[in-house]
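[Automated response] Your request has been received and processed.

Submitted sequence:
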Amino acid sequence: MRKPFYVIVSVIVILSIITISCDTKVQETEEPTRIENTLKSVSFWQDSLNLDPTLLQASLERINEAIDSIGYPDAGYRLWIVQSDTASDYRFLLQGNWPNQDLYNEIHEHELYKEANKQEEIWNQLSVISYDRFTKVK
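Generated structure:
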């Protein structure tokens, strides 16, 4: 009668030791803090050279990676090709999404941003037709 009791106690002790010795803590991946973008910049660009949009997109991806490294993964640029039924003087729309004016300034003054942007000479081949900023109505 004592044998089953000792077996049960031994199994409980062994399972307890295994449980305690195993690291059952689940590692949580930290999500970056999300900040609502309340500022938008929009610019229209003329393209007299008929540049390949994938070159511009690759340029923006490098700039956006720098912005992400600064700590603002939801901020940055998006490139749009303007499709119009009427003739227009511009081919590209560049949309910027920013948390607010202060953080826009902080991002654009940061060395990572300046370095990424400095390397993007392709944008000098285009002409800006217009540039506007918009703030979200709350």
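Summary generated for your ticket: The mean pLDDT is 84. Helices lie at 2-21, 53-70, 101-109, 111-118.
If you did not submit this request, please reply to this message.
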